Amino acid sequence: MTFSIRTKLTFWYVFLLTVSLLSFGVSFFYALSKVYMNRIDEQIHSVATLMAHTIVRPPAEIRLPKNFDIIFERFFGIRTRGNYIQVLNSRGNVIARSSTLEEFELPVSAKAYVTAVEGHTTYEVVKPFGIYPVRVVSVPVISKEAGLVAIVQVGASLEGVEEIFHYMAYFFGVGIFASAVSASAVGYFLARKALKPVDAITKTARRIGAENLNERLNIKGPDDEIGRLVSTFNEMIARLERSFRQVKQFTEDASHELKTPLTVMRGEIEVALRGTASEEEYKEVLVSTLEEIDRMSHIVKNLLTLARADVDREGAVKRYVRFDEVLTQAFEQFRKVAVAKGVGLDITKSAPVCLRADPLRLGQVVYNLIDNAVKYTPKGGRVEISLEEERSSAILKVKDTGIGIAPEDLPYIFDRFYRVDKSRGRDGGGVGLGLSICKEIVESMGGTIGAESAFTRGTTFTVRFPLALKDKNGEAG
Fold it and tell me: CB–CB of 248/431 below 8 Å?
């Protein structure tokens, strides 16, 4: 059987309260019983001690008149009223009893007798008669000449103590039961009130789907566990909404980008198949088809790169890499492209810095940034690249004098699938994955990437990587 959380909380609350009250009650009863027993022991011991000094006369002779308890109380001031007094000889036989005992005797255990012979006092609880036990002290009367002369026993009934404890136990039991019942009701009410927001969260979670991810929990309260849960839940829905929106945007963009080359290839091939074309015309069709296939391959490659980055951002093997050498290789790849387009491409500074990185992925970052800069810089513009060492970081800057990025697009250029075609005037561009890939790679290597841009006047991308120290084996530390 499965219980609700509020039922479990109520049960544990009542259980702990009951255990606490029972523990307190037992401790209180024990302490109170010790106090009562100590007082009774002091009383009966004082009477037994006075009796022991009064009944013995030198040389070791016991003198006990008839009705001695009454005589001792009246003439010697020994308070014997309410006590059971019994005197035994050295052999343990009863030689005198107080009038309160009538025909009864106080039992003498073997332990009490042996202890008295040894000269020690013994306290015991016995039940010689009636329904209530009796607290008895056995005090030995010792003489230097004869040794053990007599044993004085004084007992006091525990009737009053038993009655007090009986009534206290009754009231404690009723009180604990009433407290448990009250705690059950109050605890269930408080648990229900405290967990009420959880019910609202459950209902909202069941209601929210892919179609209405814009809904949020509107539960106001203190910044406690429930409040933080509500805040976390709303943040999670916001992330899901953003992810769904990105996926939807990606699906639309990717389908459009993949559809365009397929349509071009289909049209050209159909035209070529209908008529009689020359060999040169067929070659043109094949070249155009190959270009569209390359374009589709580039799109698919970018998608696979991002998919792998999602699965394992640390999957690539990192080793000691000279960043300036990677930069030089990428620069050489774009030099002819820049010259053909009429764009100036220069490395203004290249510091010999070392990183702990995957050289292939690091090269992909540099390649994408230079490719973007050259692509969006018109003829006559310039692209300047610098690599510097600043404290414990390597700083790469790619600055162009191109068309720039609109201010409303700048905060989102690293988001996946975000397109800035309108602001950058792209014709037949990608699906907005290049900069997202750069960000994934840079962050996987512990770096950061950012951009500054003035619309129509150029853009500067800045990448920071932590430097690595080379160990004795040539590996990055």
Answer: no
Taking Cα atoms as reference points, which of 391, 392, 384 lies closest to residue 355?
Answer: 392
Is residue 106 a contact partner of residue 136, using CB atoms and an 8 Å limit? yes
Within a domain: 451: yes
Higher pLDDT, 268 or 25: 25
Which amino acid, one-letter code, is at 17? L
Token pair 């201010």 is found at 407
Check which CATH number belongs to the domain holding 243 and give it. Answer: 1.10.287.130
pLDDT tens column, 421-466: 544 433 444 556 788 888 888 988 889 999 999 888 899 999 999 9
Collapsed DSSP state (helix, strand, coil) of residue 406: coil
d(CA 332, CA 118): 111
CA distance linking residue 364 with residue 463, whole number of Å: 13
Task: Please return the burial class of 396, using the count of CB atoms within 10 Å of its CB with bins 0-12, 13-18 and 19+.
Answer: buried
How confident is the model over 64-75, as pLDDT tens digits? 666 666 666 665
Q: What is the pTM of this model?
A: 0.46
The number of folded domains in the chain is 3
- Rounded to whole angstroms, the Cα distance separating 70 from 55 reads 14
Same domain, 377 and 242: no
Cα–Cα distance between 164 and 448 in angstroms, integer? 79
Structural domain for 356, as ranges: 319-466
DSSP state of 477: -
Q: Which amino acid is at 447?
A: G
The pLDDT of residue 316 = 56
Supply 11's token pair: 């049960």
Buried b (16+ CB within 10 A) or exposed e, 50-64: bbbeebbeeebeeeb
Q: Which residues face 57 on adjacent strands? A: 61
Q: Per the domain annotation, does 431 fall within a domain?
A: yes
Residue 476 has pLDDT above 50, yes or no: no
Q: Is 250 in the same domain as 101?
A: no
Q: What angle do CA 118, 36, 128 make, to 5 degrees?
A: 60
Range with the poorest average pLDDT among 206-210, 305-309, 380-384, 428-432: 428-432
CB atoms within 10 A of CB 159: 13
- The type of residue at 248 is K
Domain identity same for 247 and 276: yes
On whether residue 171 sits in a domain, the answer given is no
Assess whether 49 and 22 both reside in one domain.
yes
Last residue of a domain, one of 141, 163, 185: 163
- CA distance linking residue 380 with residue 117, whole number of Å: 124
Q: Give the Cα separation of 72 and 54 in Å (integer).
A: 9
